[in-house]
Amino acid sequence: MDLSGKTVVITGAGRGLGAAFALSLAPLGCNLILCGRREADLAAVARSVLSHGGKSAQTVALDLADAASVTEAVARIATFQAPVDILINNGAMWLEASQAPYAEAEVMAVVNAAITGTFLLVQGLRPLMQLSDAPDILTIGSISGLPNAALQTVSVPFYAAKRGQVALAEGLRQEFRGGKFRSILVNPPYLDEAMPGGQSWAANGTRAKNMRATSRDVVEASIFALTRPHHISLTIELGADEGGLFPS
Ligand SMILES: NC(=O)c1ccc[n+]([C@@H]2O[C@H](COP(=O)([O-])OP(=O)(O)OC[C@H]3O[C@@H](n4cnc5c(N)ncnc54)[C@H](OP(=O)(O)O)[C@@H]3O)[C@@H](O)[C@H]2O)c1
Asked: I want to staple 18 with a disulfide (CB 3.0 to 4.6 A). Which of 13, 73, 76, 204 is the partner?
């Protein structure tokens, strides 16, 4: 299956894994809609996409922890008047484990971004995705979202939020069975950042056995899943010697 000409919405696209998705999908001929909280970061990624031969990159302000912002983002995406083929639910707020009490706002934001905002975005974009021949919702969960995963350095609110996000993708997969939508779930381990065009991305072939996974592993696993025949909906758990589900 070819991703050329697909319109792809990416959340959390201003940096990290979301930006790596944008720079990887652009050369495959995708039209990108980059969503996130920081417009300057999104604009920088959009410029990079176009300078790497990408066809188009729109930017849309989106705070997944704020339902009103999700509604506004959906309305703005609707003005582009194109079917949305792929939604990549990548944005989620990270919260490290701490001995000190977490701020209320942080706990609300972690849970709301991963679960409430992600679900409302899926729901809001469904009419635009219905216009696609083969709509895909790809959710980036985490190994922390798997039952009985080791907590490692993750806070309990993040752990619970990621479990909820995993459940969301799994629930959608059941709901979509037999229809034209597909839900794909990719659960990364702890990652080292890599960006297309950068050294760590290119160093893929020389990585040692005991290293962490990188953003490239997640992007390539996701593209593999997206290019399977449309009745195949994969859940991919990425293992790694370092930072994986079973810490040393
Ligand atoms: N990095 C890892 O080790 C790792 C491991 C397992 C799973 N993951 C998952 O992979 C995805 C991407 O993470 P990452 O590796 O790029 O690192 P990250 O530091 O966890 O980045 C989180 C991404 O989500 C965005 N985000 C956070 N809160 C948001 C909100 N309220 N609304 C919209 N966007 C929001 C961030 O954008 P801004 O903060 O710039 O707005 C950033 O792009 C996340 O779902 C993360 O949980 C990452």
From this structure: 13
